[in-house]
Amino acid sequence: MAARESHLLEKIHIPALLVEGGRVTFANAAATELLGAHIVGQDARIALRDPDAVALIHSGESGSVRLHGLSVPGSLWNMSCHRLDDTVRLITLDDLSVRLSVARAHADFVANASHELRTPLAAILGYVETLENPKAGGDAETRERFLGIIRHEAQRMQALVEDLMSLSRIEAGKHDAPDEPVDIVALARQAVAEVSARGKVELSCEADRAMVAGDRGQLAQVLRNLIDNAIKYGKGDGTVRVAIEVSDSGRLLLSVNDEGEGIAPEHLPRLTERFYRADTSRSRAAGGTGLGLSIVKHVVERHRGRFDISSTPGKGTSATVILPLLKD
Predict the structure, then answer these.
(1) How far is CA 65 from CA 51, 60, 204, 324, in A?
(2) CB 3.0 to 4.6 Å from 226: which of 138, 188, 237, 256, for a disulfide?
(3) Other C-beta atoms within 10 Å of 287: how many?
């Protein structure tokens, strides 16, 4: 192969190989990173390890096939074979794994959202149909009870729709770093005051002010979601502790700690997934939409920060947000 052609193939960011007479004669950097430098000079059957790929190369035709597990188990690649002459084939490999993962995540999200909306909607329709039947539950007490259930389920749907819209707005602006000066200490004091009637919440701050560049509404939502979660899943008579610390390295650390039952270790990595619940029955009874921690994660990432959750079963859970402080 000419040096110019070799140079051109090296510029391709996807793996590219030249196969001549069934043997790999060239592999660009992306291909050697994927398959190993040893593939140059190797029989294509050994290099690609896929009967369909080898059959296409030897068929004398151009075309494409899907390769499963080429890089890691579960990966999916599209191999394109281009006939250059009677003996030379140009092979390019395109990783479809990310696109497949995104498609699955989208499908799961739509399915989960539909399920979460159908459940309260079914309850609303069922009780409305009962109220429309003059023979069923005609007394005032029964009607009042049924209307209370309808109101509760409608509010549950409203909360879910609002969280879905909020998550959509956050994701739409995730590449735009917010730049409004926001005092997290003042925001935390306001959030704690708002929930004072619902639970015992204590706030401790290392500084009187802690300024970050952010979106005030979204940061307030982070505080509300974390404190609400701590109250819902903490011990009934326990204390939720909110702490704000500042570091010499220019970071703000916000932690929200409860004294609840805690979360088993196997659930921790998935808590920020949409609709994931460590305890489904308890979450629904507490009124959660399953989107609160996902919203927190997306907001913190938009603010170029980090979000972590740690928990000890039987002792409680700690949610920690780390954000860069605004430079003076």
Answers:
(1) 10, 14, 60, 47
(2) 256
(3) 12
